[in-house]
Amino acid sequence: MLPMTKRKQNPDAQGTSLQGRNEPKIRIAKENNEAYQPPRRGVILLELLILAFFVVFTSRFWILQVHQGADFAIQAQNNHWREEKVSAPRGRIFDVNSNVLADNRTTFGLSLIRDDVRDLTATLARVSVWTGLPLEQIEERYRQSRFKVKSFEPLLLAQDLDFALMARIESELYAWPGLEIVVLTRRSYPEKDLFAHILGYVAEANERELDKDEDLAMGDLVGKAGLELTMEKRLRGTKGLYDIEVDASGHMIDRVLREEPIGGTNMHLAIDRDLQKACWDALGSQAGSIVVMEPDSGKVRAMVTAPAYDNNLFAKGISHRDWDALRTSPRFPLQNRSIQSVYPPGSVWKLVMAGCLIEKGISPNESVNCPGYAKLGNQIFRCWKHSGHGRQNLEQALFNSCDVYFYVMAERIGINAIEAFARASGFGSRTGIDLPHEKSGLVPSRDWKKRRHKISWTRGDTYNTSIGQGYTLITPIQIAVYVSGLLNGGDILKPLLVDDEERTVRMRIPASKETLDFIVRAMQRTASGGTAKVVGRKDAIMGGKTGTAQVVKLGKNRRKSSEMAWRERDHAWIATFGKKNGKTYVVVVMVEHGGGGSSVAGPVAAKVYDHLFGPKDAPK
Description:
The longest helix has 27 residues, at about 40-65. This protein is of the alpha+beta class. Helix content is about 40%, strand content about 20%. Strand 8 (about 240-245) and strand 9 (about 250-260) form a beta hairpin. Helix 14 (about 350-360) packs across helix 17 and helix 15 packs parallel to helix 21. The chain is elongated. The chain has 22 helices and 21 strands.
């Protein structure tokens, strides 16, 4: 075997061969390296971003520092100041002789500014310790108020705190940022229950009132009843404004009054406090109402409702116990009996019937025999005098309050005529007195009974209506307005409680002057010796008509009031007028479940006239 020998290669040939195979690639690489340029697109984008950021930053800096610099400087300055509204005092209320009936008193409260509070839980607990109020009550007040008060505005937590307590709190207040003492004005009623149903009361605005009135804030007092409610806009003033300078911790440095608060308008009533007190005393412990009115002007000089309540309880914030006692009392002290309670009028309604009968063509001289009853089919309608009155004309029927006369005559003219006359004389509608929740009463009709009871009107219904029984319901103020109309020529006036109000005629009694004069003369005769003689007096011209309104049907055999349960007793009425020394007054008394009009309501009215005209038997 021949040995293998290595072929000797020519280096040049090898290089030439390799170069020949790779030369194009090497050439290309060289060419690329010589022509290569770094990518410019990314660099340009980066440069643009940097430039844009610089432009935006510079522009924003210019806007903040130059263009809006002054505005931000003002805002920065305002961070040292806080606005605080200051309540205006309510207008005071006086009687006609300038005796104070509703006043304002200064008290203190504790408020919280949420922006400045460090530990809310501890702060509320501290307020509870200071004031003695339950922590749950303070926390509930905070929860109710926080959405209605801005975080930098005072949120009232406690009120009606006395000066000694405030002095002790103030010595510790520095350790509790966000709490501050506020001076408040609260309502005071020096006459208490004597004027409660006229004045009403104020209390803190509720959520509905806050939503309805943008001028109100949490803790503001608003009228809730009586004149405090109806005259709210007049009595409430315009709030002032403080600028409060504070440090970084929120503590007050200075206070500047920017807008002076404007107090509410003072108001003088037509009511005479001394006369009101005399009426209150005359009524005594009985439940009922007294209205004293000037027939020519419509001004109400007294309007008493008993029992009543101390309206200061509400102004201070009534307790649950006191509220429950008032709300559940069987004598309803919250009810204004002069305008909100409706009663069957009894025989005082015969004053309305008299006008209606004459205007419908019944001669006052025509007489009816009264044997003590009137038969209607199988029914017997009795007169209050079981032995009867004999023959009675209209004047005699008013003098003796004969029921049978009005039974017979009412059937002749019909219920449609009675309803129309009564409505035209102001019954069945509100008088318009400036007090809330006045009732309109009820003048029954055929249509009303059909709608209400789903049965037809009967002749017996007409009998009952003619003597103020059955479905007929009125308020004491309505009969006072009607009697005033008899005396002033027929004007049905709006009863005026505020002394500077102008005389307002609502409607006119649809009767001639001769008819009105006839009724007035019959009232005078009745007061001189008839059923209203208890108010008669020789030193004045007096007139009256009594009424005893049956509450429950007792049948033929009536019992004495003393033998009956209080709620079963009749209501006692008397409607009167008196003239002396150029002064004329209408006095209406209604004693709830009092019994007889002559025996119960009459003596009350006589006491009122003793105050107006002096004692009856006093020497001239």
